[in-house]
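RECORD TYPE: inverse folding
INPUT: structure tokens
STRUCTURE:
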């Protein structure tokens, strides 16, 4: 009777494993929304816990069959053979579910990381847009133009590492058919805004550089003219002081 019960337990265990495999490993999942992906991750975590909890039952079956094999070698030998098959299938199921759980967790982590990088780069684009707008109505002063140019250039020196991560993470998920529509839409919007703002910022940078160069040249010319006028003023003052008649002066002094 004990052998019959153990045989029944082995059959039930094998049946449970077959159902678990069909439910957790043979389904074709499509992750078209973050909610679907997150639910799949949670489901696989529960599946992993459920499978691992069966380890206690497997151990009890193994111990009982060993005891029976000691008492009734013939019955125990047959059950031991069936037990080996169940143990092998159980270990395989555990490994496959662990693997799928790990894969889904990695995919979810990849999605979260992509969102974080997009948030960082969006904040940078907002800052860049603000700096570009600030260069629109500048006072016609050299210091103001110079400060605006330096401020814009400091934002443009932003490293490209984050954008590289966005491209690679997005492509990895899209290649796996995971959230591909949502990610494609997000990346398209981000890239379009990045191209538009970066081109506008570079164009404004060139304009400011040219404006600054013109102002510096004008400032230098005014300084030279001022120095020349100062020299002339001092020369004329000396002529007046010495009471020199205008017709005795050089033509330019007259």
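DESIGNED SEQUENCE:
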């Amino acid at each position: 009777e004990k052998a019959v019960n153990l045989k029944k337990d082995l059959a039930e265990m094998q049946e449970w494993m077959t159902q678990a495999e069909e439910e957790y490993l043979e389904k074709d999942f499509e992750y078209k929304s973050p909610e679907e992906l997150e639910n799949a991750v949670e489901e696989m975590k529960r599946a992993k816990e459920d499978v691992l909890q069966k380890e206690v039952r497997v151990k009890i079956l193994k111990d009982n069959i060993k005891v029976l094999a000691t008492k009734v070698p013939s019955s125990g030998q047959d059950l031991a053979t069936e037990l080996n098959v169940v143990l092998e299938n159980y270990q395989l199921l555990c490994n496959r579910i662990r693997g799928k759980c790990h894969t889904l967790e990695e995919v979810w982590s990849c999605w979260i990381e992509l969102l974080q990088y997009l948030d960082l780069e969006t904040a940078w684009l907002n800052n860049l847009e603000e700096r570009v707008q600030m260069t629109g109505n500048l006072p016609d002063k050299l210091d103001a133009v110079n400060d605006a140019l330096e401020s814009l250039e400091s934002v443009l020196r932003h490293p490209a590492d984050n954008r590289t991560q966005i491209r690679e993470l997005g492509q990895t998920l899209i290649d796996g058919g995971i959230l591909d529509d949502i990610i494609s839409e997000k990346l398209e919007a981000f890239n379009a805004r990045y191209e538009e703002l970066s081109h506008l910022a570079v164009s404004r940078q060139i304009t400011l550089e040219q404006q600054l160069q013109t102002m510096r040249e004008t400032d230098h010319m005014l300084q030279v003219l001022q120095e020349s006028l100062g020299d002339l003023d001092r020369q004329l003052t000396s002529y007046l002081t010495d009471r020199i008649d205008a017709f005795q002066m050089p033509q330019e002094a007259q």
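NOTES: Residues 224 and 230 are 10 Å apart (CA to CA).
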